[in-house]
Amino acid sequence: PAAVGDNVVNFILPDYQDIMLDIYHDALKGHSATIERSDGTNWWQLSFYPVKGCNGQIIGLAQNVQNITERKRKEQQLEIQKEMFRKIAWQQSHIVRRPVASILGICSILTELEMDKQEVKKWVSLLKRSADELDYVVRKIVAEANKMYEVTSYE
Q1: What is the DSSP code string of the chain?
Q2: CA–CA distance from 46 to each of 9, 23, 86, 135 (Å)?
């Protein structure tokens, strides 16, 4: 246990001593600081504030430590979701657009030309191929969105 007069450095993990001493010195000069660090298992937010006496002179510092592990986990989940949404948006703007353009082009041809039954079958076959491709792409996007949901809802 700590006792009055103990050196605070004795209670700081060796890897953090330099940065903590810099922050302590800054706080004793009147500057507040907040840092976030992980110990490998949990995330911690450490805040430091100068403490002033009645005459306004700095007489010490106050330190607050808060476990922010849950917040960090949620931030990581949001980053995963944002990346998945970026990927889905790219797919919709590039991959989905191609079969849609094909379908629209075929529909335009079908409405403008006079064709015999054999030609209509050929164009309907191309239309079906584009529709199948679009269906595949949409199913793939839905599967990725569901995968994203599973990844972020179980963490």
Answers
A1: ---TT--GGGGS-GGGHHHHHHHHHHHHTT--EEEEEE-SS-EEEEEEEEEE-TTS-EEEEEEEEEE-HHHHHHHHHHHHHHHHHHHHHHHHHHTTHHHHHHHHHHHHHHHH----HHHHHHHHHHHHHHHHHHHHHHHHHHHHHHHHHHHHH--
A2: 15, 10, 33, 51
Give pTM, 2 decimals. Answer: 0.56
Which pair of structure tokens corresponds to residue 33?
């600081």
Give tens-digit pLDDT for 88-122: 888 777 777 778 888 888 888 877 878 888 888 88
Q: Which two tokens stand for residue 12?
A: 């700081």
* Structure token pair of residue 70: 């849950």
The closest of 101, 88, 89, 90 to 130, measured between CA atoms, is 101
For residues 96 and 141, is the Cβ–Cβ distance under 8 A? yes
CA 22 to chain centre: 31
Do 88 and 62 touch, CB atoms closer than 8 A? no
